[in-house]
What we know:
- The complex is a heterotrimer.
- By secondary structure, chain A is mainly α.
- Chain A has helices spanning 10-36, 51-65, 67-75, 85-106, 115-118, 125-152, 161-184, 197-223, 230-261, 264-274, 284-302, 304-308, 310-337, 352-384.
- The radius of gyration of chain A is 21 Å and the shape is globular.
- By secondary structure, chain B is mainly α.
- Chain B has a domain at 43-124.
- In chain B, strand 1 and strand 2 (88-90) form a beta hairpin.
- The N and C termini of chain B lie far apart (70 Å).
- Chain C is an alpha+beta fold.
- Chain C has 2 domains: 3-34, no CATH class; 54-262, Alpha-Beta Plaits (2-Layer Sandwich).
- The longest helix of chain C has 15 residues, at 3-17.
- Strand 1 (80-82) of chain B pairs antiparallel with strand 1 of chain C, so a sheet runs across the interface.
Amino acid sequence: MLELALKGSKKYYGWITALLIVITIGLGFYLKQLSFGLGITGMSRDVSWGFYIAQFTFLVGVAAGGVMVVLPYYLHDYKAFGKVTILGEFLAIAAVVMCGLFIIVDLGQPMRAINILLYPTPNSVLFWDAIVLNGYLFLNIVIGWNVLEAERNNIHYQSWLKPLIYISIPWAISIHTVTAYLYSGLPGRGFWLTAIMAPRFLSSAFASGPALLVLICLIIRKTTNFDPGKEQIQTLAKIIAYAICLNVFFFLCEIFTVFYSQIPEHMDHFKYLFTGLYGQGAYVGWMWISLALMVLSIILLINPITRKNEGVLAVACVTVFAGTWIDKGLGMISGGFVPNPLHHVNEYIPTIPEILISLGVWATGFFVLTALFKIAVSVKEEVRA
Amino acid sequence: MKDKKIIIAGLLIFLIILFSPFLYNIFVNAGSAQPAPELVLTEKAKAAKECVRSTDYMTAEHMRVLDLWRHSVVRNAERIYVNSKGKEFTMSLSNTCLDCHSNKAEFCDRCHNYASVRPYCWDCHIDNPKEKE
Amino acid sequence: MESSRRIFFKIAGLSALGLSTKPVLDAFAKEQAQDTLPEPQTQKGAEALIARQWAMVIDTRKFNSAEDMVPLIKACHKIHNVPKFENKRHEIKWIWEEEYHNAFPMKASKFISEKVEHTPFLVLCNHCENPPCVRACPTKATFKRESDGIVLMDFHRCIGCRFCMAACPFGARSFNFRDPRPFITKINKQFPTRMKGVVEKCNFCAERLAVGQMPACVEASNGALMFGDLYDPESEVRKLIKTNYTIRRKQALGTDPAVYYIV
């Protein structure tokens, strides 16, 4: 089926070329980072994780979000999603690939990454994260590829895939749960030390992943002969509406606990993010925009009139994606590190090379995504014809 | 299998690329291989006659000895190595190995370069503990 | 290390059991017996200092100003080849000074004396008895040494993921954001430097304890710092803890720091 990704229009190749250019630029800066060290980023002794780990966290969410089309189809026998499950699975593959790359570019000694397997350490959450992410990648490749091939050959997929499909559903939950545990089990970080971290991560995942999926579905309908379907997009929109409501609700739960208890070690991080602390507050604007975007998206998604208008829905999906991205891909990580455990405020601002490397990884993910979706859509067109 | 020819050609090209270093040495570079560098010993090393283990063992397995040393020192807090003859050594690359083999450039580097081995020992460990500056 | 001898005895025992296999095993045993030299061993040095859990008591009453701490910090950073970066983001420190409300956040009372408010406190890795950094490390590159409780770094194994830095509630860890060598003023040739991409921190002078010396900061402190075995009732640190009011940093987090402050 791989050959399907090679046959495309001029536009398709233009897009691929553009991605390759961004990848090359990112790679160039990564080589510089390899020789100089992580000092070319904005990270510091105090904010020791930055943009890379934040993107990783956000993208684990996008990967897990793919399950929102798989679950209704296989567990609730919601037939309409049969058409789009492959899109959810392939989106998960591309997102996990980006996750892996973001971890690699964040390592100080990437050549030693294999030490995680050579010296397995079950008490480290990072060890489990490596296992669940690679497992999820493997599951989605096997399931996605075989189910699509079966569809192409007009046969039912192999029966041994069924257990794998069922496993992949809780597995999707696990990847984001374990990723939340990376943060929520650390004693000195009041911002992350909350049991609701995993639920918060999952709710934002089930909003951002499907939101990206809806946007891609709309693009696919416009650029190809395959229509993912009006009903499918509307059902996804409802899922997003619930998820983004939950996300904001969980956030407010957090705000209540932190600000009613008035414990400074928990409160100061929120103060830093939303009002600034000791005169420093690079993220204040961003955080309020994020909140505004999420509230706006709730209004647009809950109201049936706006939700059913696909133009408005597209806007709502962009606001969901942008709002959750700022929340998780920008505020979540640096907010946890500022103020530092000694209560100093040393801010983190990503550098240009750091952003270009991140863009390179995003472009790699979208390259994989484009190729996979091209294959999926070509098969769908073939079958219909 | 209408693409048989293309597949075979592709496989062939792949194999040629895969084995290109060997092919290069057999056909192009035949006979012109550099001779292996001789080991150069300092006076002190010569006088000692034998390293912590037999010369044969050290030539082939010195990296294993060093790996044991670093593990033992860093992780087990054991810094003394007692060899088969009962002789004691402080396990230290810079302070023990390079004490005799103070000619790192000749003793270590030449052979490593020849074999295209790039150990990262010297990123951290001091390579000239005896030189003044 | 004694595995070959053990194998020898095992084989000898087995050969006594089964006569049918005896000839074959005899041949093995003979081959083993030829190598009469014992396998090399590793051991502690005779002068090495030993403890169940090393601990430090810092008598803060004996420090009057930041100046009093400079010799201690210098002694440590000099012998351990700790680089000095101008760029604050890349800063590396093993032992340094903090004001009271930073060393002990949330512990400072209102309206405390000017002296306490601005007297610097010496801070370093606490070598916690229950270290969260060790829990977090995915490769056991940072580990709690069973023999004496020191929380150590294995720089050969560290992949530079910095999970330990996020896990440490004391900000005790530094990361090598770039090659540190050009930023070391004068290299101590007896001690290695670090490479870029690994995390480092205070090692309680494990290399000095191994040869019978007290940590460098303790030695340079004129008795303001005491060092000893927390589980030896006769040790100096135990006596000080017993007879003085001591506090530890963020004790409520349950990491059980091994650095005690007399206030």
